[in-house]
Amino acid sequence: MAGEIHRLRDKAGETEKITINVGFVDLGHIDLLVQEGFYSNRSDFIRTAIRNQIATHADAVKQSIVRHTLELGLRRYSREDLEAVKAAGGRLRIQVIGLATIAEDVTPELALATIESITVLGALQASKAVKAALSDRIA
Question: Which segments of the protein form a coiled coil according to its record (predicted)?
Fold first, then answer.
């Protein structure tokens, strides 16, 4: 079963909040660059720095994605998708870089019957019941 892969964009509601610790001198440098107008705020600086590092390692990331057969972007699994997998007697090994979403109407029983394992580098969105049912299958 081939799914569509969509490139993610940074939009409100489509981002994950993280917390980092930064030394005072580094923070001062960031604030100076913001004050001088190079960046609109601290978050803008940090997002830009992250993108620059990802670009620096782009070849290694591409090779790793191929080596690990990861899907890149947004991958949604609907109840209909999982019912089709079940009907075909298959099981999914979900491997995503980005966002994997299991639809809210997927029952824990259907998820258990159709999902062998889940590896998500990024974020997994699913109901609490489905996450609890699959907890031993989520890496």
Answer: none
